[in-house]
Specification:
Chain lengths: 154, 643
């Protein structure tokens, strides 16, 4: 049976080493993360040892090896956000969801990721949930934000 | 409906191409279309969307359909004033374009009602755009007189927030692609490079290497294939000008890149852009296909023998990929680790071929230098640093956003005149410039003129141009710790001094900001030793690292040590944080005469450190207190003070 990964790989016939990162990016975009299967199959396709692919994938912050939650929360920890209190925001978020950065809640709804800078420094501190921006977040406003997403699920 | 202009964009481009040979130039004026329909512009860059431009747009569409108003909506990029987002501009036929700030969805109906009735009083305006043909609004200042814009000189950002970024026609109507055509028709590669050399343009990505010289090196190297690379992997936390340029005016980057490629003889160009900027990537893709359609990119551009294919490569989130050799390895599909130079990329770069890497802002300067001449460009700025620089203002200032100023403007002017000073009437403490590789500038150095040399002289650097302003409540040790944490995570691991040294520096900073252990002498000894080592270690890391990341890694610590040694000393010896930011060093006390025994604080305390009975004064158990300050914020009677 052909899986989704096989389908993605067919677009990369005759691909060289330089297609490795775009390929991994496409797999992650469609699957949400890089599974063991994906890495092994990519290796066979591009004729690169699995260990080397793993080496590249772990080097870059973008790649994940576990699925993310339905609502993926990116917390910006850039300088401007730090000066305006993103550390407290992250702390509050972690205690609200009862997970640490990099983890997913048990119900699979939320996951937190810390990113270096989203580039919306003028609106710091910033959160990005599934592509939607939340500007000027405070420890107090976190609960409301989380609640609106929880309410969508009920 | 737009009435037809005198000539189509295609005809104009053709006439322009011939014009450079015959000397008979068409006028961009002819491309102007007469508007007889209202246009509403919405600032929809990432920052605008973050402030709620999406909801504003939905509200405007609803208003227009409900009231049956015939108007076009155009999404533009970011004009630069983030605090005023969402920004909505309205252009009624024959009236000047007027710009309103902070238009949230709920304000849309009243605002549009008033504007269509000709009233602007009572609404926050940024100003109106000047235009001779249109009637101005009464009592509305010009946007160029707005305190945020008046000191700026916009070259790179001239179209951002004004034109439709996904319309190549608008870019051309404002003189776009004229530089490229001029170069293809009139200039040899050598002449292009000479123009750039004479203009004095230096790399805007951090190092400040003369752009013309870099191009000449690659031009001189013989090869069957050369590459032009644009570094849009804006990794500096606190900088976002590249994103704004690409989101607001992508064609400017493409034109600059194409001129550069022609100069060095490259037929393939790469744009290495962060995956975190999805909107910018999307707009870039649209722009490339538009330019190809008009024959401004692709095979045999404008009937000359020059081919150029521009490819987009998405970065995967590694700060070190801002280093040119690391970036090239990343494009090749390897771990983004730097390699020793020489060989320099201009001789042996991407896939072993001669390559040139420049930053987005550098390329965005090129079209205007060609069009207006090097004399014009070098008349702006200081003696050794020409042109303008875009800075990303953020932190504790009133007006956050992007500003483009001529080199030579003082830091004080930027912070107190353009940015409007410090928020909430606090006192200025310091400004961090140049991101993790840069340093901080204090009150005493605020009057230095911004250029490459002056910034280095005070221990900072231009970097990519992030300016993070900090007020009196900021702890400088905490800031240094923040940067070391960032650098230590982003170190690629190739050189041991950088990989291990930054980690040890971070540990030292963590130990001086961690909770005091009064009876642990070993802890105290280690802390003192660590601090003594800090400067020594910093020197070793600087001198023995291979790439720019390692060589500048200790800068945040060195620069804060230089100006705020007393704060470090307070942390080390007195074990207090003067700014009250380091939670582990904070202590709280309940004033018994003010405490009413309401129990709010004990309920808020995450570690149950507060004890006491109802209606009687409470107490904080010091050994359990983590210094989070939740009680301090919760108390309504100001009975809890920080000591």
């Amino acid at each position: 049976m052909k899986t989704k990964i096989d389908e993605i790989l067919t677009n990369y016939d005759n691909g060289g080493r330089d297609t490795l990162i775009p390929l991994l990016q496409e797999i992650q975009e469609k699957e949400g993360f890089l599974s063991e299967e994906a890495i092994v199959k990519t290796g066979k396709k591009l004729k690169i040892p699995t260990s080397k692919i793993y080496g590249v994938a772990t080097f870059y912050n973008q790649f994940r090896f576990e699925p993310v939650g339905k609502y993926h929360i990116m917390v910006c920890r850039g300088t401007a956000c730090h000066v305006l209190g993103s550390a407290t925001v992250l702390q509050e978020l972690e205690s609200q969801l009862k997970i640490k950065a990099g983890q997913t809640t048990r119900d699979g709804l939320f996951s937190i990721e810390v990113v270096a800078c989203i580039g919306a420094c003028g609106l710091a501190p910033v959160l990005n949930i599934n592509g939607e921006f939340h500007a000027n977040v405070t420890a107090e406003s976190i609960k409301n934000i989380i609640d609106t997403y929880r309410a969508k699920e009920q | 409906m737009k009435t037809k202009s005198n000539i189509t964009t295609r005809e104009y481009l053709q006439q322009l191409t011939i014009g450079f040979e015959t000397g008979k130039m068409p006028q961009a004026e002819d491309l102007k279309t007469v508007q007889n329909k209202t246009i509403i512009y919405i600032g929809a860059g990432t920052c605008g969307l973050g402030a709620g431009a999406g909801k504003t747009k939905t509200a405007i569409i609803k208003y227009l359909t409900d009231k049956k108003v015939d108007a076009d909506i155009i999404e533009v990029g970011c004009i630069g004033l983030c605090t005023a987002e969402p920004i909505v501009d309205v252009q009624i036929p024959e009236k000047s374009r007027i710009s309103f700030s902070n238009v949230t969805a709920d304000k849309v109906d009243t605002l549009l009602d008033a504007v269509f009735a000709g009233i602007t009083d009572g609404f926050k305006t940024l100003g109106q755009f000047e235009n001779k043909e249109n009637k101005p609004w009464n009592n509305v200042p010009r946007i160029s007189d707005h305190p945020f814009f008046i000191k700026q000189k916009r070259i790179v950002l001239q179209n951002c927030g004004i034109i439709n970024p996904v319309s190549i026609e608008e870019y051309i109507a404002r003189g776009g692609y004229q530089g490229l055509i001029q170069v293809l028709k009139k200039f040899s590669s050598d002449e292009v490079i000479t123009t750039i050399e004479k203009s004095g343009l230096r790399g805007r990505g951090g190092g400040g290497f003369p752009t013309g010289l870099k191009w000449r090196l690659a031009y001189k190297t013989q090869s069957d294939q050369k590459y032009m690379i644009c570094n849009a992997d804006e990794g500096d936390p606190g900088a976002f000008m590249d994103r704004a340029v690409i989101e607001g005016d992508p064609h400017r980057l493409l034109e600059g890149l194409a001129i550069g490629s022609y100069a060095i003889g490259a037929s393939v160009a790469y744009i290495y852009i962060r995956a975190e900027y999805p909107l910018a990537i999307e707009r870039l893709k649209i722009a490339i296909s538009q330019a190809e359609e008009y024959g401004l990119l692709g095979h045999g551009i404008l009937g000359t023998g020059f081919d150029l294919k521009i490819k987009i490569k998405m970065g995967a989130g590694a700060f070190v990929c801002g280093e040119e050799t690391a970036l090239m390895h990343s494009i090749e599909g390897y771990r983004g680790m730097p390699s020793p130079r020489p060989p320099f990329p201009a001789e042996k770069g991407l896939f072993g071929k001669p390559s040139v890497i420049n930053n987005v802002e550098t390329y965005a300067n090129v079209p205007d230098i060609i069009q207006k001449g090097w004399e014009w460009f070098s008349s702006v700025g200081t003696e050794k640093s020409k042109g303008t620089k875009v800075f990303a203002l953020s932190g504790n200032v009133k007006n956050t956003g992007l500003v483009e100023i001529p080199m030579g403007t003082t830091v004080r002017q930027i912070i107190f005149e353009i940015a409007g000073g410090i928020r909430n009437n606090k006192k200025f403490k310091s400004v961090q410039i140049g991101g993790p590789s840069g340093g901080c500038i204090t009150e005493e150095n605020l009057d230095i003129q911004v250029d490459y040399q002056n910034l280095i002289a005070v221990g900072a650097m231009m970097g990519s141009g992030g300016l993070v302003v900090m007020d009196e409540d900021t702890c400088m040790v905490d800031i240094a710790k923040f940067f070391m944490d960032f650098i230590q995570r982003e170190s690629c691991g190739k050189c041991i001094p950088c990989r291990e040294g930054t980690k040890r520096m971070l540990e030292t900073l963590q130990s001086i900001t961690s909770k005091p252990k009064p009876n642990d002498n070993r802890d105290a000894l280690e802390r003192f030793q660590g601090v003594v080592q800090l400067e020594k270690l910093a020197k070793v890391i600087k001198e023995t690292s291979l790439c720019g990341l390692g060589q500048t890694a200790p800068n945040p610590v060195l620069s804060t040590l230089r100006y705020f040694r007393h704060e470090y000393e307070a942390h080390v010896f007195e074990r207090v944080c003067p700014a009250g930011k380091c939670t582990d060093l904070r202590k709280f006390r309940i004033l018994t005469d003010k405490c009413t025994g309401c129990t709010v604080c004990s309920k808020k305390c995450p570690t149950s450190a507060i004890i006491g009975t109802r209606k009687a004064p409470h107490f904080i158990q010091e050994d359990k207190c983590i210094g989070c300050g939740a009680c301090h914020e919760a108390c309504k009677f100001e009975a809890i003070e920080m000591i």
